[in-house]
Amino acid sequence: MLELVKSGGWLMWPILLSSVVALGIAIERLWTLRQAAVAPTDLLNQLLLEFEQGALSKERLHQFQLRAPLGQILVAGIEQSEAGRDPMASSMEAAGIQVVHDLERYLSTLGTIAAITPLLGLLGTVIGMIKVFSAIQLVGVGHASTLAGGISEALITTAAGLGVAIPTLFCHRFLIRRIEELAIDMQQDAQRLIDQVYAWKSATLRIEPGP
Q: Is 36 among the domain residues?
């Protein structure tokens, strides 16, 4: 493996470094973007239950915020529940924008790696071919071993660049799609929270006795 890296020339090192960074980001984001970590299925039901029971203290709301990103969105809505539907929805929308921004952390770096590694490979190809033509000028075409080094460098860097870029691009697209799915789930939970809270408020107003 080390000999292969040496054969590819100095551009193999930034390509290898890019692969390590891409792998680290992919693993970290896959772990972070689990459904249970971002939008637990029981979080909304638990929040609604405690809201109905009047058991939501500031400390308890803070615990919901720390539990998952979905909790940050729902708590933002609960805190504006007395102001009306529109302020409640606007507050959750603003919180949702921040949450999605946090979920997309490092993805721009991943996309950049997917874009630049083929270019690094192409640059290695160009450098390798320059060496080949320089060798031809010096020794002619009769020395195959002299020409083979430049051709090998060109092919190895191209293959390495594509070998890093293809899985990195796949991971980037997969993670973007994953965030979109989570965002839709959180949006649906936010809408359900608004509907449920104001359904309870309407029911309470209807059953209050008159003067």
A: yes
Per the structure block, which two tokens stand in for 167? 């899985």
Full residue range of the structural domain in which residue 101 is found: 2-203
Q: Write the pLDDT tens digit of every residue in 137-191.
A: 666 655 556 566 667 777 888 889 999 999 999 999 999 999 999 999 999 999 9
User: Taking the CA of residue 29 as centre, how many other CA atoms within 13 Å lie in the half-sphere pointing to its CB?
Assistant: 26
pTM over 0.90: no
pLDDT at 140: 63
Give the model confidence (pLDDT) of 71-125 as tens digits.
Answer: 999 999 998 888 888 899 999 999 999 999 999 999 999 999 999 999 998 888 8
- The size of the chain, in residues, is 211
Predicted local distance difference test score (pLDDT) of residue 131: 73
For residue 139, is it within any domain? yes
Give residues with Cβ within 8 angstroms of 193, minimum separation 6.
Answer: 44, 47, 48, 74, 77, 78, 92
CA distance linking residue 26 with residue 20, whole number of Å:
10
For tokens 């020395």, the residue is: 143
51 domain-assigned: yes
**Per-position DSSP letters for 111-149, written without gaps between them:** HHHHHHHHHHHHHHHHHHHHHHHHHHHHH-SS-HHHHHH
Q: What is the pLDDT of residue 151?
A: 72
The answer to whether residue 120 is domain-embedded is yes
Q: Is the pLDDT confidence value at 66 over 60?
A: yes
CA distance 29 to 19: 15
- Structural domains counted in the chain: 1
